[in-house]
Each structure stands twice: as structure tokens, then as C-alpha cells.
């Protein structure tokens, strides 16, 4: 099976050349050679099987357009309170593989990690590279958006952009709430955001703010999941409900 790469140019039926950083990655890192065929995802969303015409010049020709959609039936943004260590790297990679359309992070009240704007920018750049690699490996049609917010209020103001806001809340799980998540997903909203707290959880004040703005507080099963596990559970459940149960 041909390797897949994203290129920052529109689809064309004529021979074309690609530039760095894609050129460096394909030919210097992955060592593509003349005659090798690759799947390229163009910036306008089209996918094509393309052949290397001249590796030195990074020249390709399109063999055929590929009609494929590997995206979830609904847009799912995963939002997490900043976790410790490299957990956000792990979440980004696996959430991309599982179909998230965007991965957001924000400083929640009980987040141990606090990053300034300079640090956030560097982290965003790193996570964007992780997301691109995971999207190529898993044959995605798009690379998820990566957004890290410096302030919780900036993140909170974006929630009105979604059809449904879901908050994975540990206390709801402890009280035996087991049905709301499935009920929301079964409605097939076009664009949802699923919010997860950091290791310390979501504070009562944050929970009340979410509730006051129409968010659904849901449990994710009877077991308590780690901060880096819960988003993957939710995405897997969405896939099972909407893709494996057609």
C-alpha cells in the first residue's frame, strides 16, 4: 500500500513540483525514488495516486484521483485541560488516528501545567507535526486543527460554535449516569465538542459554567478513566455508534 502525505497545493492533472517541508520529508527522510507511487492529499481535499517523475526536482505526475472518505460522519473536537508531561502528545496522536477533527487544550482551574504564549506556540507547532504524521499513517482526509488557549475564558467563548457541548464528568459516572453520551451521539449533531478535565478533574465552578451554557454532563462507563484515556474512549465509542452500526 502506498504511503500517504499531505501537500500544501491544489490538485492538478499536470506534472507538478512540491516544496519544503514536504519535499524534505518525502525525499530526504522517507527516501522516495523515481517511479515510486505515493498517495498525496492536496490542500483542496482531493486525494491522488501520484508517481515520482524526478526525485531530485521533487516532480510528480498524477496517475489517478482517489475517491475516499475516512472521516467520522460528524465533526468531533476533543478539548482537554492541560495535562502533565507528554500526555498531550499521546492524546494528539491517538485522537488523530481515531478521527478527531480538532484537538484543543486549555488551562483549567485544576491543571498543574501553565504555559505562556511563547511556550504555547512551540507546543502547537510540535503537536501539529504529530497530528500530521498520525493523519498520514491512518489515511485521514484532513489533518486535525491544533489549538492551545492561553486562558480558559478564551476557550469557553468558543463553545457557542458547536451544535452540542459534552462534558465528560467523573461525578456523573460515579452517580451511575450511563445514557446521555449515546443519546447525544445518536442525534447525529453536525459539530460537537467533548471536554475532558486534567488529572485533577473539572472544578465545581467550571462545571456550573458549562451547565449554565447548555452543556451535557455525561458519564463514560462505570470505570474511572485517566485524563489521557478518556478522549480515546469517547472517540472509539462515537466510531462504534456511527460507523460500525450502519
UniProtKB/TrEMBL annotation:
Record-annotated membrane-spanning stretches: none
Domain of life: Bacteria
Enzyme class: transferase
Main location group: cytoplasm
Catalyzed reactions per annotation: uridine(1498) in 16S rRNA + S-adenosyl-L-methionine = N(3)-methyluridine(1498) in 16S rRNA + S-adenosyl-L-homocysteine + H(+)
Keywords for the protein's UniProt record, in alphabetical order: Cytoplasm, Methyltransferase, rRNA processing, S-adenosyl-L-methionine, Transferase
Functional description taken from the UniProt entry: Specifically methylates the N3 position of the uracil ring of uridine 1498 (m3U1498) in 16S rRNA. Acts on the fully assembled 30S ribosomal subunit.
PANTHER family found in the cross-reference section: 16S RRNA (URACIL(1498)-N(3))-METHYLTRANSFERASE, RIBOSOMAL RNA SMALL SUBUNIT METHYLTRANSFERASE E
Name of the protein in its database record: Ribosomal RNA small subunit methyltransferase E
Source organism per UniProt: Lactovum miscens
